[in-house]
Every structure is written in structure tokens, then in C-alpha cells.
Amino acid sequence: MLKIKDLVVAYGGIEALKGISLEVNENKIITLVGANGAGKSTTLRSIVGLVKPKQGSIEFEGKNLLSIQTKDLVRMGITLVPEGRRVFANLTVLENLKLGAFYRKDEKEIKKDMDWVYELFPRLKERTWQTAGTLSGGEQQMLAIGRALMSKPKLLMMDEPSLGLAPIIVKELFEIIKGIHKQGVTILLIEQNANAALHIADQGYIMETGRITLTGTGRELLVNEDVKKAYLGESVHK
Amino acid sequence: MSLDILLQHLANGISQGSLYALIAIGYTMVYGILRLINFAHGEIFMMATYFAFFGIATFGMPWYVVFILAILLTGLLGMSAERVAYRPLRDAPKISILISAIGVSYLIQNLAIVLFSGRPKAFPQIEFFTRMFTVGNVRIQALTIVIPIVTAVLLAVLIYLINHTKNGIAMRAVAKDHETAKLMGIDVNKTIALTFGIGSMLAAVGGIMWGLKFPNILPTMGIMPGLKCFIAAVLGGIGSISGAVIGGFILGLGEILLVAFFQNLTGYRDAFAFVLLILILLFKPTGIMGEKISEKV
């Protein structure tokens, strides 16, 4: 579905991505795990065209994404839940969700998806008329995901959804991500929380300073000694 | 001062305030979406009066047709200025685009001097607006009543547009966060152009009514109202539409009443706005309706 080949991205003279390749297959949960500054967000930002790569190619369903503007990606079925949620704090929950469906004209289907989002996140329904800025961190993350779902994505990309959330909410969140996946949405998940991410992933990539250093199924990576040491902490798997 | 005269001054102040409000909205909308003080806004306002002047005086078209055409043309002018002078600088430092705005302001002003000559022209008087009414003992020009009504109607339309239409929600989203707006599939460039179009059209309505009220029109006539309405926008809290309206009315009423109550201060009429600016910057820099701007993280 999504194919990245030899992607190089440089900020000024510094290469944030030094030629990475990865593949996202339809109906899978793929996760990209790595520490701060490994280049995870840069990878996502290049996919959506917010960063211009120096080299390499990104293809989605056979189409070259590098020649497509950010605003048109959502029409192709790609959506990104950005790092730090980035909900429109001055808008109500409902308006935020409506913006997710901005390009769509099929009012009936939009209504259906709205009901689905409210079903996934009942807390949002209670807060329909509140401005997004008044929501808690966890609720904002739910809104950001709900907003992305309103675009009826084929590929849902998430940039560190668990960041800054209480462990219990993270757990809830990952259950919901699994639920979304069951509805037929392909997921590309970026996480520092390797344990949680690898548990739900079909395929995992480990990133270090601009390179992909390891890849395997979620289960393989969870038991890999190097991964355990670097990302999981031994205590997790006692 | 008798009650009648006070009422007359109040009516004048409200009508002056309406004009300021209409122009101030353009500043505040553009600032909201681009964080740019569009210094060419006063010149856009000036051009609207000239468009209307030529439509009536040179082409002899009926005034209502001319007004609509002038408003549309001014909207286009505002959008072109954005396209040519601001859009290419979207990723440049804020100061570059600000300087570009000052450039556009001087360009339009000097172009107008070359094309229309620097001598004042007399804006045509239209009977519909110049008629005098007598309400009780107060004699009032129709225009003095028309201006606040037009302003109120336009404000209502604008508020509906911004709060309840798709484009309006898009505008508010872009004002908050360009990148995320793009991710939603919003055409940020189109939304910004629309903002300039609306702001310029409101300035055009203000400009035409200004011409009717003060029929002496000049290529430099945009400078003072431009500055004052910028002050009105700052006073109300730049970025806030209701703030711009409140600021406009405070300024308009303040000016008129200052002169009414203290006749020996007549010469300081223009200074009032600037004193107000200094005071607001000293004591409440975010303006009356302004939110505390938190830096983006």
C-alpha cells in the first residue's frame, strides 16, 4: 500500500533520515519505534508532504506521493494524527470533527462516521459543544484520532499518540486503535512506548538516528535481546 | 449642551464608529489568519472610493450598480495584493512580509497619484443619502442612519459566515494552525485569499460611505483612516472581530464626543486615537477582547 524507498531528508546540512526504506501493507498495523531524534516524525512528515525529501521515493497505491500537495492527501485516503494532537483549540469538538470530513460531500456517510466516532469515544459526545482547548490531554488525543477518522482514511498514521498520557489511558487508547484496525483501516503507528506499540503491531521497524536498524514482526521484536535492552527495560518481561 | 445636540453628536459618533469598525475588521481578520498587519489596507479603502467615483462620475452608471461593482473590484484588488506581494513570502520571516505590505501601500498610493492626479476630486452626492430627516428637534442626514444599519447587516452576515459555514470554520482553523489545516484537506491559500477578499470588500463599503460622508477624495485619504482603524483593531484586541467593532465604536464616538464637549480641543481630534493607542499599549497590550497569546510549542 505504502512504499518508502531510500528516503533521505536533510534539515540544512544535517541528515535526519539517511536513506530509509519501509513498507506498509494493507490491513496491517505497522509500527515505527525509536528514541527522540531518530527521525520518526520526519518520516511521517515527508509522507504527508510537510517536509521535502532530498532523495528517495514514496509511493501510495502505486502513485508517487512526492508530487502531491498536503491538502490533497486526505482525498487519497491518507491521514495523519499529528504529534502533540494539534486539535483546533478555538473550535468546538463538533467543528473539529467536521473539519476532519472537510473534503467530503456525502452528508449521510459523514453522519454515520460521526456516530461511529462518538461510539468509539463516548466522552467526545458529552463534550460536543465544548471548545477543544478545554479538553484534557487524553480527550484531545481522542479528538485528534476521531477527527482523522472523519476523513474515512485507508491509511491512518499516528505520531506518538501515547505521549504525555496516563498509563491507564494509554491502555484504553491502544485498545481503540486495535478496534479501528478491525474496521479495515491500515495503521502506521509511531511510538516511543515500544512495549505497547509492538504488542499490537503486525510488523515493527526500529529506528536509530535516521536509519532503520531492525525489522520484524511485533512478536519477534518484543523478544529480541537488543530491543529489550534499548527500549523495553528488562523489568517489563520478567 | 441640550439633549438634542447630544443626540445629534451621538448619532454622528455611531456613524463614524461604524465606518471605523468596517475597516478595522479587515485588519483584524488578516492578522488573525497570517499574523500580518496589512498596511496596504488603508490604500485598498482609498481605491474603493475612486472606483465608485469613476463609476458614477465618468461612466454615469446608476449608483447602486456602481457600488456593487466597486465592492467586487476592491475585493479583487485585495486578493491580488495578497497573491502578488504576500503569498510568495509565506515561509519568509514575518518582518519581510510586513515590509512587503508597506511597499504595497506606497505603491498603490503613488500609482493613484499618477493615475488620478493628486488633486482632490468631489465624490458625487446622491440624493438618497443626502436627504435630511428631522426626528423631534434633531436634524439628521439619511447617511448617518444608513451607515450603522449597513454595518450591522454586514456584521451579522460576517458572523454567520465565520461561525456557521464550511469556509468560515476553515478560516478559523487556518488562523489557528496552517499545517494541521492542510492535513484536513483545507486549501490554505484559497482560505487566506478569501479572508483578504472579505476584508477588502468590507473596507470598500466603508470607503464608499466615507466618500458620501466626506466628499473630498484624495489618493492619500487612506492614510489616516488606515492608521486609526489599525488602532481600533489593536484597541479591541487584534485578531478578534468583535474587538475590532468595539474598538471602532470607541474611537468614533470618542473622537466626536471629545470635540463636542471640549470645543477648544478640536484641533486634537486626530491625536485622540494615538493617545488611546499609547494608553492601551501601556495598560492592556492585548486589547479589550484580546486573548493572551501563548507561544506555540
Distance between the termini of chain A: 37 Å
Shape, principal axes of CA atoms of chain A: globular
Unreliable segments of 5+ consecutive residues of chain B = none
Spatial order of the strands forming the largest sheet of chain B: 1-4
- What is the number of helical segments of chain A per DSSP (H or I, 4+ residues)? 10
Share of β-strand residues of chain B = under 5%
Give the structural class of chain B: mainly alpha
Radius of gyration of chain A: 17 Å
CATH topology-level name of the domain at 1-76 and 192-233 in chain A: Rossmann fold
Largest sheet of chain A: 6 strands, mixed
Uncertain regions spanning at least 5 consecutive residues of chain A? none
Number of strands of chain A: 10
The H-level CATH homologous superfamily of the domain at 1-76 and 192-233 in chain A, spelled out, is P-loop containing nucleotide triphosphate hydrolases
Q: How does CATH name the architecture of the domain at 1-76 and 192-233 in chain A?
A: 3-Layer(aba) Sandwich
Beta-strand content estimate of chain A: 25-35%
Largest sheet of chain B: 2 strands, antiparallel
